[in-house]
Hints:
Helix content: 25-40%
Number of helices: 11
Oligomer: single chain
Structural class: alpha/beta
Number of strands: 12
Strand content: 15-25%
Shape: globular
Strand order of the largest sheet: 8-7-6-9-10-12-11
Largest sheet: 7 strands, mixed
Amino acid sequence: MTIARLHLRITTCVKPDALILKYLNDIVNDIKSYHDVTFEVINRRKLTIKNLFDNNSTPLLVIQQTGVVLYTSVDNKIFYHENTTRVKYKAYQSKDHVPPLVELIQDEKIETKIIIDATMGMGNDLLLMAMTMPDSRFYAFEENFYIHFAIKWGIQFYYQELYDGILKTERIQFVYGNIINNISILKEADIIYLDPMYEETVETSNIASLVKVVTHNIQDDRQLLNTIFEHFTGKVILRAHFKSRLIHEYQFKMNIRKQTKTHYGYRYNKILAK
């Protein structure tokens, strides 16, 4: 059986400096470890993004001075941006506010040594968890290669100081794939967090670019949750649109927040809350 291969082009900004060229080298070395991905490094010269897509529709990763950007087309780009992560973290540090996700994770009833983000997406919740839980290890799963690779390297570029302090110690492991195919990691974890954000899409700048490249099927969410509840022992945390059928189907206890369409909920699995 022939395995379908993914393709990625990689280039830099028009005038790359030494740091940009270092990232280019690191990214090329990394992508070689993905056996189902072929890649090509493009000499940018003075070509515009439009020029680069004139006769080639292959997704394009651009290493810029401001970060790593993945163009899935000339009009659609995916890149890590912290959104409100730093604001939430500063409020948490000053003890002004505990984000609802962090409140659910900081649970005295359970261990927090290993936390899985089963649906990484843009990575904002992942980074918030990593910054507020410095003694925890994280696995970040994303089964769309282009999102996985762009956000993984976008986070490294954007949070250079955080990467030196946290990620290089392998506290966060970015995994291309689905947790369904990684049962050993599933059984190892204490907390699993998931955000099936495409079920009831809220059109925001944060996820609109992802919606264009991901085809969502609620049956995939059900398969993921069924696998979790079959093999996992611990606390499952769900972020979901208030209309989500998953809330009632899987009996999540939701923390309702006013003036927002998404809520956080939880369910203990195979353990008794002390």
